[in-house]
Amino acid sequence: MEPEIEFTPSVDNAVLGLREKRLAQSTRSYKARGCRVIRCTRCLLPKIHCLCSSISPMTSDSRFCLLMYDTEPLKPSNTGRLIADILPETTAFIWSRTTVDPQLLTLLSDNSYQPYLIFPASYALPGRVTKTVDKQLGKHPLFIMLDGTWAEARKMFRKSPYLDNLPILAIEADESSDYLLREASTKEQLCTVEVAIKLLAQVNEITASEQLNSYFVNFKQRYLAGKANRSLESLIAHSAENCTAKL
Ligand SMILES: [Zn+2]
After folding, report:
1. Strand pairing partners for 144?
2. Which of 194, 240, 242, 244 lies 20 to 30 A from 19 at CA?
């Protein structure tokens, strides 16, 4: 029998809270790809590659808000959650085309934050795009990240009227992303955590940027090691089947 992802309620950041909520809403169990693997219920990596003990949370002046598409909080390949692991003041919401969480609206209108929507400049009217963060006294920059596949992020961008008046801060990939965990991504697209690492560097939060980067490097290595194990296992299983067939 295939083990399913179960959740141990040890909620200590917003993404873990969303995951719990999303699992409770599901009428059937969510099965991640490669679900035969026994995964850590917190970091979702195969248990032998668990990186939970290396999480060292910190505070930063910049704040992140993740708008997550549907099952994104449940996916082992999701990287937005890494931001919340290191910066637990990160907020997270499940995106919906028809409704908006009132808490998200409250956050967007809160005077202690200066919100920016993070999205490529080519999708917006030029007047809306900014390349720099205006560090206003007493305000935290609030970076709104659309967390999903590229097609999902575009959909969230187009169909969220409450984001329409926010300035767009454009982060362009000046180097290739080497996080090719998802077949749909291309070299030009940075994954969510890579964008956050760049944003933190841009606003001179170097320690936070470096800490998040080293956590991401660690995650990437372990994720890919888990993937390699799985391919090897399926290869062995497959050749065993072939042998049986020949016998
Ligand atoms: Zn873990």
Report:
1. 65, 117
2. 194
